[in-house]
Design brief:
By secondary structure, this protein is α+β, with helices and mostly antiparallel strands. It is 24% helix and 21% strand. The chain is globular and about 35 Å long.
C-alpha cells in the first residue's frame, strides 16, 4: 500500500512539472474578435485569404458576456509568463 502511495505522488509531481514547462514560453491565448465591438467571432472570421475575414486575433485577456477585454490585438504586447518564467522586454 505504501508503495502505491509514493507512485501516485511521483506521477502527480510529474504532471505539475510538465504543466510548468509547457506554460513557460507558450503562446498566449488567442480568440477571434471584431476589432470595433470587441465581440468574439467564429475562428473562420480571422482566417486570411477566405471570404469574410472581418475579425482579428485578440491575444490574452478574458471574455465576459461575449466581449473580449484585458488583452491586445498585438501578440508581442501580451506577456504569457507562467510559473517560474522570467519576463523579457525588447528595446
Amino acid at each position: 500500500m505504501r508503495r502505491l502511495r509514493s507512485s501516485t505522488v511521483v506521477l502527480g509531481g510529474m504532471g505539475v512539472l510538465a504543466a510548468t514547462i509547457t506554460s513557460c514560453g507558450s503562446e498566449p491565448d488567442k480568440r477571434c474578435v471584431d476589432p470595433l465591438t470587441q465581440e468574439t467571432l467564429p475562428s473562420y472570421e480571422c482566417k486570411s485569404g477566405g471570404s469574410g475575414g472581418t475579425g482579428r486575433y485578440y491575444y490574452g485577456g478574458s471574455v465576459s458576456k461575449g466581449k473580449a477585454s484585458g488583452g491586445s490585438f498585438d501578440k508581442s504586447a501580451v506577456d504569457r509568463g507562467g510559473f517560474g518564467c522570467s519576463g523579457s522586454s525588447g528595446g
